[in-house]
Amino acid sequence: MAMRWFVVQAFSGFEGTVKRSMEERIERAGLGEKFGDILVPTEEVVEIRNGQKRRSERKFFPGYVLVRMEMDDETWHLVKDVPKVLGFIGGTADRPAPISDKEADAILQRVQDGVEKPRPKVLFDVGEVVRVTDGPFNDFNGVVEEVNFDKNRLLVAVQIFGRSTPVELEFSQVEKA
C-alpha cells in the first residue's frame, strides 16, 4: 500500500503537541514503516519592530497537521486516539480520504518558499493608507497604489507640496496608518 498525505484536524494552538504525540505513539507502536512525514505547515515571516527585523514562524493552516501514512485500521486508530486530535478532514468519519498529490505538492512548495524567502507579516492592499517610517519620506502618509509581493515593495502615492507623487518603498519602510 502506498503512503498518501492526510489532513488531521487538531485543537488550534496544539499542532506541535499533536505532532510530537503522534511521533511518540508511532515509535511506541513500532509502526514507523507505515508513516512518513508529519508536518505542521508553517512559513517564515518577517516583521519590523522598533527598527529591528524579526523573523518568526506563522502557521498557514492553523488547526491542521499533515500526515503521510498508509491508511489501515491500525494507523487510523493510532492517529484518532492522539490527544487533541479532532479527526481527519475529507472522506467519511471511518474512511478518510487523502488529499491529492497536487494539493500536497502545493503545500510543501509553500513551506519551502517560506524558508527560502520569508513573507512580510503585515500585508498591504491597494487603496490602503500607510505611514512612511523610514527614508526621505519619513512621517509622510500615502495611499498604496500597487503591491509587489515578490519584491516586497509598494508603490505609494505621497502628497508633496500639494501634489500626489508615486514613491516606491519596501514593506519595511511603511506601516498601516
Q: Counting H and I runs of at least 4 residues, what is the number of helices?
A: 3
In one word, what is the shape?
A: elongated
The separation of the N and C termini measures: 55 Å
**What is the total tally of β strands?**
12
Radius of gyration (CA) equals 22 Å
Proportion of helical residues: 10-25%
- Strand/helix succession: EHEEEEHEHEEEEEE
The major β-sheet equals: 5 strands, antiparallel
Give the spatial strand order of the biggest sheet.
Answer: 11-10-9-8-12
Which structural class matches the secondary elements? alpha+beta
State which percent range the strand residues make up.
Answer: 35-45%
Low-confidence parts, pLDDT < 50 over ≥5 residues?
none
- Could you report the average pLDDT, rounded to the nearest whole number? 88
What would the keywords be for this entry?
177 residues, alpha+beta, four-stranded antiparallel sheet, 3 helices, 41% strand
Task: Describe this structure as you would to a colleague.
With 177 residues, the chain is of the alpha+beta class. It is built from three helices and twelve strands. The strands form three sheets. A five-stranded antiparallel β-sheet has the order 11-10-9-8-12, with no helix packed on it. A hairpin with a 4-residue loop joins strand 9 (141-148) and strand 10. 16% of the residues are buried.
